[in-house]
Structures are given as C-alpha cells and as structure tokens.
Amino acid sequence: MSSHAFAEKVRLPDWLSRYIDYGTQGLSGPELRQRRTLNVISALIPLSGLSYASLYLTTDAQGLWPAALAVSLFCIFAIWPFIAARSETAAWIFGAMMAVIVQAILVWLLGRASGLHLYFLSAPVIAIVCFGTRPVGRLIALALVCSVAMILSQNLLTAPASFIRVEDDLLTFLETSAFVIVTGFVTLGVYVGFLNADTAERALEVEYARSEDLLYSLLPREIAGRLKAEPHTTIADSLPNVAIVFADIANFTPLSARLDPRRVVDLLNGVFTEFDGLADRHQLEKIKTIGDAYMVAAGMPNSCGNPAHRAADMALDMLEVARATSVALPEGFEIRIGLHVGPVVAGVIGNRKLFYDVWGETVNTASRMETYSAPGRILITPAARAQLGEDFMFEPRGEIDVKGIGIVETWWLTDRI
Hints:
- With 417 residues, the protein is α+β, with helices and mostly antiparallel strands.
- It has two domains: 3-211, no CATH class; 233-416, Nucleotide cyclase, GGDEF domain (Alpha-Beta Plaits, 2-Layer Sandwich), CATH 3.30.70.1230.
- The protein is built from 14 helices and eight strands.
- Strands 1, 2, 3, 4, 5, 6, 7 and 8 form an eight-stranded mixed sheet that branches.
- A hairpin with a 3-residue loop joins strand 7 and strand 8 (406-416).
- It is rod-shaped, with a radius of gyration of 38 Å.
- The relative contact order is 0.07.
- Residues 1-8 have low confidence and may be disordered.
C-alpha cells in the first residue's frame, strides 16, 4: 500500500503524509521502503522524547529538569528526513551519533537502574530498517560502540548523577518500560527482516517459475533440461526418422492487404493457437512460425515409433481448424500443407533468444511440398506415403519437378481410414 493510500485510509493530515513521503521521489523497492521507515521513525522519536520529558516534569520538575532537557534533544530527529534527502551517508552518521550521544547523556543522568542503557540495543536495529545492511562496516562499528556503551553504563554509571533527584518508583518504571519497548522493538525488527526475506524469496520463486515457463515455451522440456545442466555445451542431435509438416495460408498477402492490421494479427493468433493445441494433443513439437507459415515436427526431440502417423493426423486436423476459422471471414481462406519424413539435425542456436531449430534435406523437401501443394490440401512424399501404409486415404498427384530436388512422385493425403 502506498503512503498516499495509507494516509487516506487512516485519514492522516496532509502535512504528515507529505512528511512521510519527503525525499522518496525517484525511489523504488527497498530504498523506498527504507526511506519511508526513516521518515516515520523521525516522527516517532521526537514524540517519544516529548512524552518522557512530560513524565519527568510532571513527576518532579525541579529535580528532573536536566533529564527532561536531555530527552528533549531527541526532537532534533525531526530533521532526519531532510538530511537523508541530501546525503544518505550524512543521515547515517547523524542518526548514529544522536542515538548514542543523547542516550549516553540520559544514562549518565539517571544511572543504570533506569534501564535506559538498554536502548543502545535499538540503534543498530534502526540503522538496518532505515538504511539496509550496507555498508556492513558501519553496522559493525555502530554495534561495537553500542556494546561498549552498554558495558560502561552497566559498570560505571551505577547511580544517578549527584545533581539529579529521582525516586526509586520512577527508576523501576523506566527500567520496566525500557525492557518492554526494546524487546518489542528488536522483535519487530527481526520479524520485519525475516518477513522481507520471506517476501523476497517468494518473489524469486515466482520469477523463477515464470522464467522456467518462458524457457519451456521456447524449448522442449528435454532440451531445456540439458541446457540447464550443461549451459556451455552445444546441443546438436542427429535424428534418423522425423516427420516435418509445413502449413501456409494460401494467398495471405492479398488477404492481409484487405484486412485491418488488428484483424490480421487476430487471425494468425487464432489459427496458430489452435495449431499449438493440436501439436500438444498429437505430441508434436512446434518448431516455429514464419509470417503466415507454421512448422511442426513429430519424432523430436525424442524419437517415436510412428512420427508420420502423428504428423498426418495433425495435418488433417489443421485443415479442419482452417475451415472452421475461415467461416468468420467473408472472403474465407484455406491453408496448404506439405509433409515429408526422414533424417534431420536438430539443435539450439543463439545465446540471447534461444531457438530450437531443425535442418536437413528432409526439412527442405517438406517445405517444397507445402509450396507445391494446393489450398485445402496436404501434399506428401514417397517416404511419408510408405510409412503411412494403409492407415490413411490418398490420391495420386503424380510426378512433379521440385525445384532443387528434381522429379518427385507425390500424393494427396485426403483422410483417415
């Protein structure tokens, strides 16, 4: 919750809200939280000092006025936010010196029986919650100074100063309240520290899970696992029997020219999202999309016994998805599909935008089949026809002269048996 929202919820005065937010412009994250904590403590310490001054004066103004004057020095903490806004180092030194010096004066005045030396424990805690754990050297130095001050107070300041008149009942009250306040404050500081650590760990877990999901959306799970286990190893696999499917929206260029850009994106997103679902259902690996073309493979990264069958099933379902989707467009559209089976090489390329890709003559041939296919049809090669056997229905297309390959006998894949 922001300080503005907090102020509105509890109806803080505007001047107090501005005071709490002073010097926070441009800060975020831990720095913002620490600065607001410093500002709040800067308001609470003077209030605490004034309350103790009132206690001393109402109890025995003549005998305790030096203690009331000394504890009123804590009101100087009200300028702490203004120092911090200009120099965090100066604010750190100011806070440490004020906490140690003023507290030492009070212990000297009222003695160890007052229990005021216990407040030395709070100085390092305040430093951590207001400035974080860095620099460590300052924290260690402050902790040592406070420890020495406590030891000296315990052993040397055994009684109040000679010019101070204080009743035992007041000393007992001060000691009890100091113990309760310091214990509560230190406990709160430790709790906040562990709470922030837990929050940070949970945030890291969320970010880790998000990065894992992103990695698995870019790479097959098996490949991602290998890459994480051996990040500097080149991943390149020779796969003997992989079915490659290419699909392309026929006449997409003139179609996209007639449609609003948003409708073009919505069309591609809708069709390709459906194709992604088909790939998951038929256990194929989506390789990539290139413009209006969609490439998917069966039998990789792990080999399977019937890659051609899985690819054929998906290709037929892709035609159905295209037919169903085209109904929403007045002009409609159809896709061309090509399918081929054979050996490929697959691997991960890039070091920033990782990409799992596949290469080889099998890929080139499948791409050519898509190019020579027809809208609403699936063109396959002899290798794919041989693996599909009698489980599907075909129509001979005959021999075609494929650019870069030569004469290839081809068939239309029409349906399942």
